[in-house]
Amino acid sequence: MLDIRGVTKSYGARRVLTDVSFTVGDGRMTGFVGANGAGKTTTMRIILGVLSPDSGTVLIDGVPVTASDRRRFGYMPEERGLYPKMKVAEQLVYLARLHGLSPASARRNTADLLARLGLDARAGDTVESLSLGNQQRAQIAAALVHDPEFLVLDEPFSGLDPLAVEVVMTVLAGFAAQGAPVLFSSHQLDIVERLCDDLVIIADGEIRANGSREALREQHSSPRFEIRTAGDTGWIREVPGITVIDFDGDFAIFEAETDVASQDVLHRAVALGSVHTFSQQRPTLATIFKEVIA
């Protein structure tokens, strides 16, 4: 488990992080979202030891992280950092060897990752000859080739087409399934919503929301429900404590002043006939994000 506790960072008089604290659990995909300049990249660089905090600490299983621990991390910076004139496979083997893998293990991991990321046909190409999307896949492979135990990925889906996004999501989910804590930032909130188990929202260097995806949805849910029945739903307008937002024959969206009022609608609908669907509307990640940074 990776813990960020009370991290504060300033550049001169400008405070960029204030008491940043959150946890990335083992086997959990944690989405880290915020506007440009919110503090995501600075936080990630502190986790990796590229920057030092003014105060606060980074812990692994309750123990302060060391330089040796950081060799177990897989880090992908937002800026591409591969050698442009080096061949893709050659570069991945080289990076794996720098992390202490044997030549055989380095070659095996390289071949496996290139196949899983759909880059095996490009193994002998130089990085600079690849499309921007394939360069991004190669950068992801570089972060994973040494079998890291922790992943910290800054905008891993940037520049990827929808098919490539699916491929990368599958690979990252595989690392989480093996128990790795995975922290990734992204401006693509639809991808974060699909992939993350937990969510951290940062704005102006401060954590504004932090928790499991479903807990945050529950916390920010409105008292709005939708129902579809076998017959007309016009009668819902007459239920005390109910305001109908939308209505179309057998379908209605309504707000309930209390849980009792919403359950009253359900019970009456069941008594009148078949209820095909009844559910509370959940906010999207985009809705939650706008709400907490406002």
Going across the biggest sheet, name each strand in turn.
6-7-8-3-9-10
Helix share of residues? 25-40%
Tally of helical segments: 10
Oligomer: single chain
Radius of gyration: 24 Å
Any chance you could write out the topology, listing elements then pairs?
Blueprint: E1 2-11, E2 14-24, E3 29-33, H1 40-48, E4 55-60, E5 63-64, H2 67-70, E6 73-76, H3 88-98, H4 103-116, H5 132-144, E7 150-154, H6 162-177, E8 182-185, H7 189-195, E9 198-203, E10 206-212, H8 213-219, E11 224-229, E12 242-248, E13 251-256, H9 259-272, E14 275-280, H10 285-293
Helix pairs in contact: 3-4
Short description:
The chain is α/β, with parallel strands linked by helices. The protein has two domains: 2-218, Rossmann fold, CATH 3.40.50.300; 221-282, Alpha-Beta Plaits, CATH 3.30.70.
Could you list some keywords that capture this structure?
Alpha-Beta Plaits; alpha/beta; 294 residues; elongated; Rossmann fold; 2 domains
Please provide a written account of the structure.
The chain is of the alpha/beta class and 294 residues long. The protein folds into 2 domains: 2-218, Rossmann fold; 221-282, Alpha-Beta Plaits, CATH 3.30.70. The chain has helices at 40-48, 67-70, 88-98, 103-116, 132-144, 162-177, 189-195, 213-219, 259-272, 285-293, and strands spanning 2-11, 14-24, 29-33, 55-60, 63-64, 73-76, 150-154, 182-185, 198-203, 206-212, 224-229, 242-248, 251-256, 275-280. Strands 6-7-8-3-9-10 form a 6-stranded mixed sheet, with helices on both faces. The two termini are 31 Å apart. The mean pLDDT is 93.
